[in-house]
Structure formats: C-alpha cells, structure tokens
Amino acid sequence: MGGLGDPAICIDSDIAAILATQGVEFLLSGEGKVPLSSCDGKTICLFFSANWCRPCRTFCPQLVQLYNTLNTKGKNLEIIFVSFDHDENGFKEHFKPMPWLAVPFATNLHKRLSGMYHVDRIPSLISLSLDGLSVGEDLIGLIEDYGDEAFPFTKQRKEELKAADDAKCQGGKLEDLLAHKGRNYVISMDAKKLQIAVSELVDRTIGLYFGGHWCPPSRSFTKQLIEAYNDLKTSTSTEQFFEIVFVSTDRDCKEFDLNLSSMPWLAIPYEDRTRQDLCRIFNVKGIPALVIVGPDGKTITTNGKSMIALYGAKAYPFTESRIASLEGALRKEGEALPPQVKDIKHEHILKLDMAKAYVCDSCRKQGKFCAFSCDVCDYDLHPSCVEPTS
Ligand SMILES: [Zn+2]
Ligand SMILES: [Zn+2]
C-alpha cells in the first residue's frame, strides 16, 4: 500500500550474494584465493565443465581464446568455472589452463548451481545479467558459431548475428562472403597459393564447393566437378564468367594441402573462420555440397551438386529456367526412344522408364527421366550407354 515495495522481499541477487548463500566463501584464481567481490562490475559467465568430459576439453581452448581476446579488447568479461569433476584432482587438472576464476571444488555445489541455472548438459556456459539471475540459453553453440563476435551474448546480439547471416545468404556483396578481417583475397589451389583479390571475382557466377578429403563421396564428386569446370573454363562463352571457390571441411591443414593438389580452382585459406561461417550461412549439413552464387551476389541454388551430377557443364548458369529447359530436352529425347531394347551387356530385356533418377550401370554417372531398366534385376542404363544386340 505504501507503493515503495517491501524491503523484506527485495533479494540482493548479484552473483557474489548467490554464491555466498550456497556456502561459497571465496573464489579461486590460478594464484589462489580471491574474494567474491572480484566479480563486481564485470560481465559474468558461469562455465559448467569437467575434465573427464571430452567435449568439455575440446571446447576449453576455444573459450580461453575468446576470454583473452575479449579482455584484451577491454570487455571486462569474467568466467567462473563450476566443476563437474569426480574429485579434486580432476578439478585441478581441468582448471590449470583456465585463465579465469573457479568456485572451490565441493561435493554437490555443482548440482545446486546447475539446478538453479537449468543446466542439463556440459559443457555449458551461462551468461548472467547484472542482477545475477536472469539467464539466457546455453552459449556454447553461439560461441562455436561466432567466436568473440557473439559478445555480449545477449538475445539481441544473437538476433543481430542471425540477421547478418540471412542477409549474406540472400545475397549482397561477394566481399562480405569471402573476405575476412583484412584478408580480401582467396588463394589458388596449387602449391604456390597465389592470392587472388575477391574483387576480381565480382560479376561472375561463383560455385562455393564444400568438401573434404576424408569423405569418399566428396572425393568422387570432385572428379565430376573438375570435368564440368574444365569444360566451362575452356569455352570462351563461360571462361570469364564462372569460378569455383573451395570451402574446405578438411580436418587439418595437411588434408587441405592434399586436396589442393587435386583441384584446379580457388580456395578460402584454411586458417581463418570464413570456412565455418560459410557452412553456417548456407546451412550446409553434409558434404559434398555446391552453392551457386549469381553475378549479382544472390544465391541461385544450394543444390548445385545434383545439377552437376546430372548435367555436368550443361547446368551452367544453374538457373531454374536452365534446368527446366534441360529437363524438357531430356523428356523429348525420351519420347523418341523405343519402348524396349536388348543390350549386349545385360541378359534381360531393358524397358524404357521415363520417371526415374538412377545411376547408370555402365558409365556410373547419374541419370534422370529416361533410363533403360531391367524389371528382373536392379540394372539401369543411360539411353546413350545402350549397345543394342544385332
Ligand atoms: Zn551411362
Ligand atoms: Zn536384368
């Protein structure tokens, strides 16, 4: 009734107070004990992690890098490690490389804190607002996706980053996609790794090829793509208007270099984040994948892989109308074919099938619409691969 609020229900709720109510008397740094008040005035994140957990150990170095980068930039970030280790030794081992603070190891404290902050898995990183209470969702994914760009880890920041991704995906400047923090070139895929300015690629149709040497389907698609690429690069009508940029998902630099030796096009350098950024922006969930960006910077298709597999260089410029006209021509071709044939390579009669996606059992390439297929066994031929018996 007084309208000023009841002091009895005002909770002093910054993180130091919350920890104190849980029986925590001090925090630890690499040097030793520090007072709870060392958190005052900082952006605080709680890091729930354990040394026995492999994903935790993998994520840790990434978080150390982020912490150091942000604090070098004066962002005043503090992280408090809450240990899920089974014993004090595990805790010590895990805390050793961490440049931030930790709550002292104690049984059950991690359970109470993780219950309080709704943590149901580790690693988990929870950002606290100034009142120490209102928490958002787990930040691990956000940090893996965006690194230190994710700071200050708010919902608003996440929405901004997502909107920037969407804008890049829908199209705009090629530089925004391919360049990164002062690097404005891509490299040639040979031992010299020549630098080619991104500005030289503007106004071309660009194929972003996502692949990795460790993945067999990717290796075999590379061969098909090289064939199409060479066709396009030796034709005067397309040579100047098409380019491929490799976005490596190789597991390390060595594999990347191995890939270099087999590809005739350009690549994003292995070292910076652009490779991960492009996978995220175009929502690439599996490799091989081929995203086609048009001369105006807009995405033409994320399905370039099946276009190349079916039509090779003829798919260029990968537009809907181009694909429709190729499909139309194939249908027409099919209408002129006999209803069945006998091929010298196969013992049974092969029947014309007009609605089929298949891999040809002779040339091993994909086909669509017209196939000569066996009813008895799983055998398909391109019409052009049939050798009729006399
Ligand atoms: Zn064939
Ligand atoms: Zn058969």
Description:
Keywords: NAD, Oxidoreductase, Repeat. Its EC number is 1.8.1.8. It is an enzyme of class 1 (oxidoreductase). It catalyses: [protein]-dithiol + NAD(+) = [protein]-disulfide + NADH + H(+); [protein]-dithiol + NADP(+) = [protein]-disulfide + NADPH + H(+). The chain is an alpha+beta fold. It has three domains: 15-161, Glutaredoxin, CATH 3.40.30.10; 174-326, Glutaredoxin (3-Layer(aba) Sandwich), CATH 3.40.30.10; 337-381, no CATH class. It has helices at residues 15-21, 54-72, 88-95, 109-116, 140-146, 155-170, 174-178, 216-233, 253-260, 274-281, 304-311, 320-335; strands at residues 27-28, 33-34, 43-49, 77-83, 101-102, 124-128, 185-188, 195-197, 205-211, 242-248, 266-267, 289-293, 299-301, 340-342, 349-359, 366-374, 380-381. It has a seven-stranded mixed beta sheet with strand order 8-7-11-10-9-12-13, sandwiched between helices. Strands 5-4-3-6 form a four-stranded mixed beta sheet, sandwiched between helices. The termini are far apart. The model is unreliable at 1-13 (pLDDT under 50). Bound molecules: zinc ion (2 copies).
